[in-house]
Amino acid sequence: MPTDLTLAEALSDPLIGLMLQADGLDKASFADFLGKAARLQLEQKLTDLQERRAEAFYVRLAAHETIQGQARSL
User: Fold this and answer.
1) Packed helices 14-23 and 27-72: angle between N→C axes, nearest 10 degrees
2) What distance in Å separates the CA atoms of residue 40 and residue 10, rounded to the nearest whole number?
3) How large is the average pLDDT for residues 24-28?
4) CA-CA distance, 64 to 27, in Å (whole number)?
5) pLDDT by residue (tens digit) across 34-72?
6) What's this model's pTM, rounded to 2 decimal places?
7) 3, 16, 52, 63: most buried, per Cβ within 10 A?
8) Is-contact 12 31, C-beta < 8 A?
9) Residue 74: pLDDT above 80?
10) Cα separation of 15 and 11, whole Å?
11) What is the pLDDT of residue 27?
């Protein structure tokens, strides 16, 4: 089963090294690029998680308020 490369593995991979050389990029720039991409992905995942948790909270709150309202009307 294929897995993602670590940063160290990507920077030491000969094929990636040849591609960087062909594109005129150095390993430091590539490492910086990968780091920024990882941080952006993490931020997006955290934002998505916060939104899902907030939505679940409000769904539970609405259900609780509905049950409380029904209990008061009995």
Assistant:
1) 100
2) 19
3) 95
4) 55
5) 999 999 999 999 999 999 999 999 999 999 988 888 878
6) 0.65
7) 16
8) no
9) no
10) 10
11) 95
Distances in whole angstroms, Cα of residue 16 to Cα of each of 23, 44, 49, 57, 58: 10, 27, 33, 45, 47
Amino acid letter, residue 54: A
Q: Do residues 20 and 30 lie in contact, with contact meaning Cβ atoms separated by under 8 Å?
A: yes
- Give the per-residue SS3 of the chain: CCCCCCHHHHHHCHHHHHHHHHHCCCHHHHHHHHHHHHHHHHHHHHHHHHHHHHHHHHHHHHHHHHHHHHHHCC
Does the pLDDT value for residue 1 go beyond 70? no
Rounded to an integer, what distance in angstroms lies between the CA atom of residue 28 and that of residue 25? 8
**Alpha-carbon gap, residue 16 to 30, rounded angstroms:** 10
Rounded CA separation 11/30 (Å): 8
